[in-house]
Amino acid sequence: MTTDVMVTLKEPRMIKICAPMVRYSKLQFRTLVRRYGCDICFTPMILADSFVQSSKARDNEFTTHEGDEPLIVQFAAKTVNDFVGASVMVAPYCNGVDLNCGCPQRWAMQEGYGANLLKKPELIKDLVYQVRNHIPKPFTVSAKIRLLKDIRKTITLCQTLEKAGASFLTIHARTPEMRNEPIDLDNLKLLRDCIQLPLIANGDVKSLENAEFLFKESRCEGVMSARGILTNPALFSGYPVTPLVCVQDWLNITSTMSTEFQCFHHHLVFMLEKILPKKDRVLFNSLQNKSSVLEFLENYYNIKPNASNLTELTRCNFSTSHVTCKEKYINCWEDDSTDFLGCIFNMNS
């Protein structure tokens, strides 16, 4: 990985970024949004302890290919050993790692991950500091945080991370208690005045116009979209809704990379949300296999996958020499008790 993320973030323009979304920021989707003006992509959040200790977790949670950069791998971590260990493993295959300090989901808070870390600024500082000391630049080490109710504490936290060696910070301009309320733009602007690091603004980016407004008002270096880019992967190219050429690209990409049906179908459900009439949408959303989805799209839009060569994935040889713990595997995303849509949107939007 040769791209320097910091050089990109210092370009005198709005840097467009695809957010880390559970289940939905995988390689296939990253490949798609890069075709439509996305400058930097994040992986879904990965549990660092599972990644370090389980080859199954590594194979399931991380895939990449030659064109998948700049790429930031986001981890949920609460111990230095896990965050450093996971970061060292992925470092040859990405441009940086990010620490999730914003997930407000109950399971994450109870386990000490995500927004729970905001109560432990010294731990966040140590996690960032130790990874920064283990992996040389231009590899980036960053954190994605939410605002604290007391903006002064948020400013102090960001200044602490700045001193600890953080490369940049992503600010989801809501508190952990907020869900669909408008973002707190005033406090985001105040934060920008107090921090020297490059900042990425996150929240309420559902169109290119939203992104440009947030970029201009916040004076942050980059703008991140989650829910908006999921519904319209061509958002950063200025399309108001998903264009059919983007749907065609999705069919082509997923015909060259092995893609689980649920992932393949759910992305199409989101993409077609604003362009399919309701009765047709209900039918499409209920389809149960890939052949029926492809038949629907060919009959309705006269589009079908254009067969091409399989995409060659990067073979990742993760070093486990520093891992002494016995293997275990935790995959919270397969827990049926997890709120599906809540997990996507509340966690990393």
UniProtKB/TrEMBL annotation:
InterPro entries: Aldolase_TIM (IPR013785), DUS-like_FMN-bd (IPR035587), tRNA_hU_synthase_CS (IPR018517)
An MF annotation (GO) of this entry: tRNA-dihydrouridine20b synthase activity
Top-level taxon of the source organism: Eukaryota
Pfam family, one: Dus
SUPFAM superfamilies the UniProt entry points to: FMN-linked oxidoreductases
Reported cofactor(s): FMN
Domain DUS-like FMN-binding: 18-276
Gene Ontology biological process: mRNA processing
Keywords for this protein: Flavoprotein, FMN, mRNA processing, NAD, NADP, Oxidoreductase, tRNA processing
Stored PANTHER family: TRNA-DIHYDROURIDINE SYNTHASE (PTHR11082), TRNA-DIHYDROURIDINE(20A_20B) SYNTHASE [NAD(P)+]-LIKE (PTHR11082:SF31)
Official protein name in the record: tRNA-dihydrouridine(20a/20b) synthase [NAD(P)+]
Organism: Atta cephalotes (Leafcutter ant)
Gene: 105622039
